[in-house]
Design goal:
Length: about 425
């Protein structure tokens, strides 16, 4: 079925994130994108400072940074000031355990507040944050920690016992294992008591733009996994793509469903949204269609970033292809419009970013290769944007992004 292209009205274009995409693309420069960030006092650049300190310093510390939705119904709200204090506590814990600049902390855990404190606290301490997919088995985890020369690990008691304990002492670089909670196995450190007594003040380590910040591993499906190094200047791309492609603005209610063990779950599930001052919805639970729809409606999510497969499942529901995929697509979009605005009346944009080439995305060539966007019209009927759609235009301008992944971790190891 062929649909007519929807043309935006003049009022729509004036209120758009990029009112004139072509002009914005021509005028865009990475120098200006860098100037949109604060940088460290006295020079330097640290991702955690851009995500937290500058908002608090600007008097926005009481803004809601994270609304955490527990798997079993608990809710916890964290302001930017509270996340800053949590990250500072974690940085102090690392410092007390001898973990600092250049050391590599691996994380293998779900979406709990401790994950966000750990990620930002690690960067704050000048160490390198490396997320791992929690569904990996023991050997994939061990392989990546060996390649990355892990200095420290934070995980849960069950993951540690099932996947790590048997070979933990076979990695000579591993100096510290932090376990979330109070009851921990032998030779590990309980995060709970350490967190309670740690100071909530820690000045970010003076890192430079080219200092290592993150290591992201490829999936390993085509051979031995590669660890790709991202430097602190990656935050320039995180910030710019969040503003221009995801339309993140201070106070925007934003939900990224990506697993925190992969690059998207870090770049667009932690860094980009916080740098841009949004309110993040963080759901501890795994995918559940009804739960997702209820969350979209209850939390009034304005920007939803998810993978293509999950979006297809959500939009199409349980209907078979023979029942008409476009009809079920419209049903899904109508529900999303209601979730965002409380009614299907009016126009509501639902943009889903689909990473087509994950390796290129990891390498920092362009974090968002394709944005599929459509508009929910009155009555909930959806039609695709044409080639001049805002999200497509915003994405095209990012192809000139500088590479922020400077090397593989194997090269960085030789330089240690």
């Amino acid at each position: 079925m062929v649909w007519d292209t929807i043309e935006k009205s003049a009022a729509d274009k004036e209120n758009a994130s990029l009112p004139d995409p072509d002009a914005a693309r021509r005028a865009f420069s990475w120098q200006e994108a860098r100037r949109a960030l604060d940088g460290l006092p006295g020079g330097g650049l640290n991702i955690a400072h851009e995500a937290l300190d500058r908002h608090v310093a600007a008097g926005k510390g009481d803004r809601l940074a994270i609304r955490w939705l527990g798997q079993h119904g608990a809710t916890r709200d964290l302001s930017y000031d509270e996340v800053l204090k949590g990250a500072s506590k974690f940085a102090n814990i690392l410092a007390a355990q001898g973990i600092g600049r250049g050391d590599r902390l691996f994380s293998m855990m779900g979406r709990t507040p401790e994950l966000y404190f750990a990620a930002l606290g690690t960067l704050r301490a000048g160490a390198v944050f490396t997320p791992l997919f929690s569904a990996f088995g023991p050997e994939p985890v061990r392989t990546r920690m060996e390649i990355g020369e892990a200095s420290a690990l934070i995980t849960t008691p069950s993951i540690y016992r099932r996947k790590i304990a048997a070979w933990r002492h076979h990695i000579p670089s591993l100096k510290l294992v932090l376990i979330v909670g109070d009851d921990v196995p032998d030779d590990c450190v309980a995060l709970g008591p350490e967190f309670d007594r740690a100071s909530d003040s820690f000045d970010p380590v003076h890192t430079g733009p080219e200092d290592m910040a993150l290591i992201h591993f490829t999936s390993g499906t085509t051979g031995r996994p590669k660890g790709v190094v991202h430097v602190h200047e990656a935050v320039v791309t995180h910030a710019a793509t969040g503003r221009n492609a995801l339309e993140l603005r201070p106070g925007t209610v934003y939900w990224c469903t990506a697993d925190p063990g992969w690059v998207t779950g870090t770049s667009y599930g932690i860094i980009s949204p916080l740098v841009n001052g949004v309110t993040m919805i963080v759901d501890e639970a795994d995918y559940d269609l009804d739960r997702w729809y209820k969350t979209l409606e209850r939390e009034k999510v304005e920007v939803w970033y998810t993978c293509g497969g999950a979006f297809s499942c959500s939009a199409l529901g349980s209907l078979s292809a023979s029942q008409g995929s476009w009809r079920s697509w419209n049903d899904g979009l109508s529900r999303m419009a209601k979730a965002r605005h409380g009614s299907a009346v009016g126009r509501a944009e639902v943009a889903v970013s689909i990473i087509i080439n994950s390796i290129a995305a990891i390498a920092g060539v362009c974090p968002m290769h394709t944005c599929f966007s459509c508009t929910v019209e009155e009555g909930g009927h959806g039609r695709p944007f044409g080639a001049a759609g805002r999200s497509q235009a915003a994405t095209q301008q990012l192809h000139s992004a500088p590479r922020r992944a400077k090397k593989f971790v194997s090269q960085a190891n030789k330089e240690r």
